[in-house]
Amino acid sequence: MVFCHYVCTCALVFLWFLHVFCTFLSFLQASVIFSYIAN
């Protein structure tokens, strides 16, 4: 039970970090495209 809770917590943290990374990546891509359009 404790092991399952630990695994689920790790999975949630991993998914949250993945979500933050993807959001940062898309923001970076959008800023690059925006600067490309601005030029």
Number of strands: 0
| Sheet of most strands | none
Number of domains: 1
Instruction: Give the CA-based shape.
Output: rod-shaped
Q: What is the mean predicted local confidence, pLDDT? A: 94
Compute the number of helices.
1
Helix content: over 70%
Low-confidence stretches: none
SSE succession: H
In terms of DSSP E residues, the strand content is under 5%
Overall radius of gyration = 17 Å
Find the structural class using helix and strand composition: mainly alpha
User: Terminal Cα separation, in Å?
Assistant: 57 Å
Describe this structure in words.
There is one protein chain. By secondary structure, the chain is mainly alpha-helical. The chain has one domain. It contains 1 helix and no strands. The protein has one helix at about 1-39. The longest helix is centred in the middle third of the chain and has 37 residues, at about 1-39. The radius of gyration is 17 Å and the shape is rod-shaped. The termini are far apart. The mean pLDDT is about 95.
Question: What's the topology here?
Answer:
Blueprint: H1 2-38
Q: Can I get a quick summary?
A:
The protein is mostly helical and 39 residues long. The protein has one helix at 2-38. Helix content is 95%, strand content 0%.
List keywords for this structure.
39 residues, 95% helix
